[in-house]
Amino acid sequence: xxxxxxxxxxxxxxxxxxLEKMREALKNYPREQVLIKTxxxxxxxxxxxEKFTKKLYEWEEMRGIPAEDGSxxxxxxxxxxxxxxxxxxxxxxxxxDIQEVFTSSPx
Length: 107
Known about the structure:
The protein has 107 residues and is mainly alpha-helical. The chain has one domain (2-104). It contains 4 helices and 2 strands. It has helices at residues 2-26, 50-63, 67-75, 98-104; strands spanning 34-37, 42-45. A two-stranded antiparallel ribbon has the order 1-2. A hairpin with a 4-residue loop joins strand 1 and strand 2. It is elongated and about 50 Å long. It starts with a helix and ends with a helix.
């Protein structure tokens, strides 16, 4: 029972840390920008339409990236998801050009 509670507390603290990173990434964006909704959060970005949002979601699913991590990585290059570890490393993982992914295949 105690182990189960400790596990739940650790998961809660990890989620809280991810949400705090998202808040930091979004706090400097003016409100007139486009609202992006993910399963766990909402954020604003410039020049994003529904077609782009759909392709972003598909790209995140294809890569196995949690939606909240992938969207924030695009909005703030200092924030990214490291598969199998924490998002606190100073060097981002190598990925293919994100712009090419979104412009190369039609929906």
